[in-house]
């Protein structure tokens, strides 16, 4: 199956470079280019994109607003948004993950990293560079951490729906660990871990693993740690 990729960036030169890279792969193709968020949302629907490479800062409707619109559209539940950011640490990235993005990638990443990110997102894993994404979220939540009183009470209450094992798995997911690593740590099979992850996502209303990481921190299940 060919992965249909949409490029959303206000820099035409950068879009051209990404197009050449993506179109050079036999299992993916660029189906459209957008210079702002509104166009990105429209083309995502029209071109039936699977993965959107989304820049944050664009004129008019920015990448954050566009990500929210895509994530909120019931007809686009299969779409995965990968945020492309110039800065390794960017508060917009955390906001985008909260808005429904599947992960982030620095614009300075190697070509193979970008191609791998597209395949991972399209495959449903959707959490790119787990440790890096987790670390980014932890740093920003730590900066704004004012104690339990300001944590999301609704999400904290939803954690009550999880079984003990699902909570254990969620803690491991928030730690940036893969299913295989979690299976080894908890001494269960990777398939069992995948089942627990899927059930936790369903109960917590999370689109993917990236959203589980955000929920784990916002609910207070996992505490940010700044080394």
Oligomer: single chain
Q: Provide mean pLDDT, rounded.
A: 83
Which structural class do the helices and strands define? alpha/beta
Ends distance? 43 Å
What is the overall silhouette? globular
Number of strands: 5
Q: What's the alpha carbon Rg, rounded to whole Å?
A: 17 Å
Order of helices and strands: EHEHEHEHEHHHHHHH
Unreliable sequence segments: 145-149
Largest sheet descriptor: 5 strands, parallel
What fraction of residues sit in β-strands? 5-15%
Alpha plus pi helix count? 11
Q: What is the percent of helical residues?
A: 40-55%
How are the strands of the largest sheet arranged? 2-1-3-4-5
Modified residues (4-aspartylphosphate): 55
InterPro entries: CheY-like_superfamily, NreC/VraR/RcsB-like_REC, Sig_transdc_resp-reg_C-effctor, Sig_transdc_resp-reg_receiver, Tscrpt_reg_LuxR_C, WalR-like
Keywords: DNA-binding, Phosphoprotein, Transcription, Transcription regulation
Pfam families: GerE (PF00196), Response_reg (PF00072)
């Amino acid at each position: 199956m060919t992965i249909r990729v949409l490029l959303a960036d206000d820099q035409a030169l950068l879009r051209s470079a990404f197009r050449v890279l993506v179109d050079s792969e036999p299992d993916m193709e660029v189906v459209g280019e957008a210079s702002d968020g509104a166009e990105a949302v429209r083309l995502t629907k029209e071109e039936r994109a699977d993965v959107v490479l989304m820049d944050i800062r664009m004129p008019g409707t920015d990448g954050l607003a566009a990500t929210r619109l895509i994530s909120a559209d019931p007809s686009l539940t299969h779409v995965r948004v990968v945020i492309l950011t110039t800065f390794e640490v960017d508060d917009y990235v955390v906001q985008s993950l909260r808005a429904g993005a599947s992960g982030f990638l620095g614009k300075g990443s190697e070509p193979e990293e970008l191609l791998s990110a597209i395949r991972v997102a399209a495959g449903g894993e959707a959490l790119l560079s787990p440790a890096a994404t987790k670390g980014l979220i932890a740093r920003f939540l730590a900066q704004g951490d004012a104690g339990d009183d300001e944590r999301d009470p609704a999400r904290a209450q939803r954690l009550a729906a999880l079984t003990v094992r699902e909570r254990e798995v969620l803690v491991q997911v928030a730690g940036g660990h893969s299913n295989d690593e979690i299976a080894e740590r908890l001494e269960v099979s990777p398939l069992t871990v995948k089942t627990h992850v899927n059930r936790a996502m369903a109960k917590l209303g999370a689109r993917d693993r990236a959203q589980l990481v955000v929920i784990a921190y916002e609910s207070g299940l996992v505490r940010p740690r700044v080394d």
